[in-house]
Amino acid sequence: QWPEVFAYLVELRPVDMRLWHARGRTFASSREWTKASSDYEKSLELLTEELSQLDPADRSVALFGGAAVGLELAALKLLSGDELGYRDLCKSLMKTQVHSGEHFVANHLSRASTLLPDTMTDWSIPLKLAGQSVAMKPRIAWYLYSLGIAQHRAGQDEQAVETLKKSLEVGPNWVGCGQNYAVLALVCHRLGRDTEAGDWHRQTQSWLNETNRVMAEFKFGVAGSVYLSDWLCAQVLLTEAEKLLSGNAGSK
Hints:
single chain, 75% helix, globular
C-alpha cells in the first residue's frame, strides 16, 4: 500500500522473505498477476537460500512457508500466462520438498503439481503425496480435495467423484470449496456427464462471485485472507473447465 515504506523495510531487512510475500499478496488481491509472481519468486528464492543453510531438524517451519508460497506462485504463474515458468517451478518444488514427510507440505506440493492436466509424466507422485496427507489427517476437507484432483489427473475419475464429494461433506464451510466444484466439472466432462459438468461449472462461478463479494469487504481484500491460495487455484481450474465445456458446446 505504501511503496516508500516497503523500500525502506527491504533496505533494513534485505533477506526477509515475508516482505516480498506480503507485497506479492497485495498485487495478487488486485489481480496484478505478473507483479505478484515477481515478488513471490523473490520470496521463494530467499526462503530456498534459508533452507539450504538450515540443519534438517530445523527446516520444518521454512518448509511450511515454502509449500504455501510455492502453491500460490504456481497459480500465479498460470494466471499470468507463464506456463513454462509454472512447469519449471513444479520441477524445482519436487526437488526441494518432496521428501519432507510433512502432511501440510505433501498436500501443497500435490496441489501445485495438479493445476494443469499434463504437468506430470508420472501422476503416481502427486497421488502418493495427496494420499499421505489424507492418511495422516483424514477429516480435513482440503486434503481430501487434493486427493480428489490427483485421482482425476491420474485417470481415476470415479474415485475422484467420491473423494471430492467427501471433501464437501466433511468441510461444508470450507471457503475454498469452489475448487471441488471446478474439478467435479472437469471429471463429469470426461465421464460424458455434460449436464452435471455444466451444473458444477455454474456452481463454481457462483462460488467465485460470492467469494469476491465477501473479500471486497475486507480492508486488504483477499490478501488478508488465509484462503488466498484457494482463490487463486480455483480461478486456474475454472479457466480449464470453461475451455473444455465451451469446446464441448461448440461441437454440438
